[in-house]
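Field log, afternoon session.

UNIT: design team B
ACTIVITY: writing a sequence onto a fixed backbone
BACKBONE:
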């Protein structure tokens, strides 16, 4: 069993510490504001009253705070005590922030790995959760893999410290788009008294699972650069279908703000001369020049 410090006890930090305790590790916990460690201490965590105490005896450090600037605020005061420690930063940041954090750590002889958590706090430590890790300190990942697996399936995705963040943010962008779309759908059907819970369980979720099966087909077209191969639904048809969804929404007094940007992209691709593309064709419209 390993000795690990968890810095940051927000909703996610507490879930991570809890999963590590359940797996039998020696977990020291610290948070900027006192009081958030009570439930963890009752479960066997060691309370650190200062950041210095938290890191003193712990070669492995897990950081999960609000954002990139909070990570600096936590680590900078103890930068001279971190040499040769393994730091796994599970805080959400941009890829560039992750790379800059990694350079900061390398200059201080810290084995730094950045990470992206692909789970909500209640799923941490279950077999649904997975966490992406990247950075030059691959050995630190390998050595500590059994400990990391306690929080969720651990995937090392590469030496670029920004890669875990890029994949994390891309997937969460998708998730938010899907969840926003779901709220739009529920708003539409609720205007006619359809109960959101029934609609969601019996229709929406099964349909979204079916539609998710279509994503690899789009991915294959994007990889090949041929958006017209084995087309299931042409943009010219999709534009009309999508306009119908938006009209029905407006007729039901539901705003189309969530849908309008996608219609704009579809129509722009058609206007660029590609009406026979699959939806994958809007990939070209999304790319911005430097
Ligand atoms: N919660 C979720 O569903 C998502 C799932 C995916 C990954 N995220 C990321 O996890 C990071 C932490 O999120 P969280 O849910 O734990 O966030 P909070 O409950 O708001 O807790 C924030 C903690 O950060 C501490 N903190 C904030 N600023 C500072 C600072 N300047 N110095 C030191 N600590 C700071 C805060 O401390 P306190 O306010 O209690 O003193 C909390 O411990 C996040 O990157 C998500 O994107 C979660």
């Amino acid at each position: 069993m390993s000795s690990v410090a968890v810095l940051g006890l927000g909703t996610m930090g507490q879930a991570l510490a809890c999963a590590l305790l359940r797996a039998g590790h020696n977990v020291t916990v610290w948070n900027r504001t006192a009081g958030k460690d009570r439930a963890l201490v009752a479960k066997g965590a060691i309370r650190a009253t200062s950041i210095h105490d938290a890191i003193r005896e712990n070669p492995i450090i897990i950081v999960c705070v609000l954002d990139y600037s909070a990570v600096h605020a936590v680590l900078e005061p103890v930068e001279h005590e971190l040499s040769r420690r393994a730091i796994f930063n599970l805080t959400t940041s941009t890829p560039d922030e992750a790379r800059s954090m990694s350079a900061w750590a390398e200059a201080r002889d810290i084995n730094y790995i950045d990470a992206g958590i692909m789970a909500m706090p209640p799923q941490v430590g279950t077999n649904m959760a997975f966490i992406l890790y990247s950075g030059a300190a691959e050995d630190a990942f390998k050595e500590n893999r059994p400990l990391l697996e306690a929080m969720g399936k651990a995937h090392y995705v590469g030496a670029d410290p920004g890669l875990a963040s890029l994949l994390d943010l891309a997937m969460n962008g998708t998730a938010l788009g899907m969840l926003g779309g779901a709220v739009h759908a529920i708003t539409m059907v609720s205007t006619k008294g359809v109960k959101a819970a029934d609609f969601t369980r019996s229709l929406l979720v099964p349909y979204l699972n079916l539609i998710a099966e279509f994503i690899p087909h789009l991915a294959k077209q994007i990889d090949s650069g041929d958006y017209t191969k084995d087309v299931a639904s042409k943009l010219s048809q999709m534009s009309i279908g999508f306009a119908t969804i938006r009209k029905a929404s407006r007729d039901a007094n539901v705003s189309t703000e969530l849908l309008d940007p996608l219609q704009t992209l579809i129509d722009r691709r058609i206007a660029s001369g590609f009406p026979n593309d699959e939806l994958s064709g809007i990939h070209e419209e999304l790319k911005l020049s430097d």
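LOG NOTE: The chain is about 50% helix and 15% strand.
NEXT ACTIVITY: expression trials, pending approval
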